[in-house]
Amino acid sequence: MCYQAIEDLLGYALRTGLIEECDRTWAANRLLLTLGLESWEPPQTARERPLEDILKELLDDAAARGVIQNDITSRDLFDTELMGILTPRPAQVISEFRRRYQADPKAATDWFYRFSQDTDYIRRYRIARDVKWKVATPYGELDITINLSKPEKDPKAIAAAKAAPQRGYPKCLLCRENEGYAGRLNHPARQNHRIVPITINQEDWFLQYSPYVYYNEHCIVLNGRHTPMKIDKATFRKLLDFIRQFPHYFVGSNADLPIVGGSILSHDHFQGGRHVFAMEKAPVEQHVTFRGFADVEAGIVKWPMSVLRLRCKDDQRLVELADRILAAWRGYTDEAAFVFAETDGEPHNTITPIARMRAGQFELDLVLRNNITTPEHPLGVFHPHAKLHHIKKENIGLIEVMGLAVLPSRLKKELFELADALVARTPVSQYPEELQKHAEWAEDILARHPELNGDTVHLILQDEVGHVFAQVLADAGVYKMDEAGRAGFVRFLASVQ
After folding, report:
1. What three-state secondary structure class fits 32?
2. In terms of residue numbers, what domain contains 20?
3. Does any domain span residue 261?
4. 105 and 35 within one domain
5. Minimal CA–CA distance to 9: which of 40, 90, 38?
6. C-beta neighbour count of 459 within 10 angstroms
7. Residue 106 neighbours by CB distance under 10 Å
8. Which tens digits make up the pLDDT trace of 452-479?
9. Which of 208, 255, 285, 306 has its CA 20 to 30 A from that of 339?
10. Where are the alpha helices (DSSP H) in 36-154?
């Protein structure tokens, strides 16, 4: 039986502060009920071992006894239920966060981030599997991640999810109603999930962390109401108000149009955290001024996407200028630069905004976005072009805009297989089907790296992936980093009244 694993899990909960000694008997009985056990014989001591190992033993035992199905989805639902038993109630979490915030906002987020890992809402052991590296480019060091932390569902689970009744609760993955939700085949369990209420721009919002933490302290700031994403003047106020309350974090919003927006446009939310992205380090290469805003520093950033940086001690001045720029951009057309405000009544222009504190001043980056499509580029003119889809096909959202590539898990296996083919100088005509999409790229790599061998191939491939991502960002940039592109950018800025 799994008696030792139960004791080890209780020991883990005590060490991490999820429960107190007086909770032990209650917690043990709750675990027994969930595991389908009527009694147990507690071992004398708890063994300190990785949480992943403890949960695996409990899951294996439950599956062997028929308590759960032995598939990835069922196991994820069940271990979340087990951890939910040990997770303090929301009131306790909120009280502790607020107590720490009174002393220091950073102390509050430090605690909350660690807590979200200790509850296994953020699965440390899965995040550790992500493949990460940096690549030097003309725009600085870009971050590359092959995401392996999201478990892939097996075919049976996918089929079961499709057959399951479609429910409208919670309305989406971001809604506050996810807190404590048991989950289902097509919706993750969240019994171990906690959110902290905050007020930004006099509205009820919540702070939580992403379960997939693509970067350090990757947080999500979500509207208390299920309302669509919208970039407007209030957005700038909210971003800067959040920074006022959490000056050690950055925060940004995805754009509010398909193609250039994120994966969830149905629920208004921001993303933030403690990570210095390459875009933040990028310098201003051309200073500009706006009439009536002499007190606001402004300039075009040296970045493959079209970024205007604003800086001022007075955040309200940034809000006013940002709103003016947004209004101008929404209605701006420049056929020479292939910029169209709308076609057939469909709007195309929007902004991806990012806010931070720098040297005691509020800073706001406005990234110009346009989602127009053409027969040549059906997924978007300012979107990764087709020749790059073998590496990155998905939307360029907030995280990518700032210089972090989140690449699909398939690439880990494909890059290893491609490395072997390159070292062996295998003709591309003999590549297996899954590598055919990389054939042209592989030939180009060999042409530029005749010295490639077994010792260097993996570093070369990592470097080449980084340069593909740099080109992805350039494709997504409305104004290119050439003479014509900069002239077009300046024309737009001159139009702002």
Report:
1. helix
2. 1-67
3. no
4. no
5. 40
6. 11
7. 15
8. 999 999 999 999 999 999 999 999 999 9
9. 285
10. 51-64, 72-86, 90-103, 105-118, 124-127
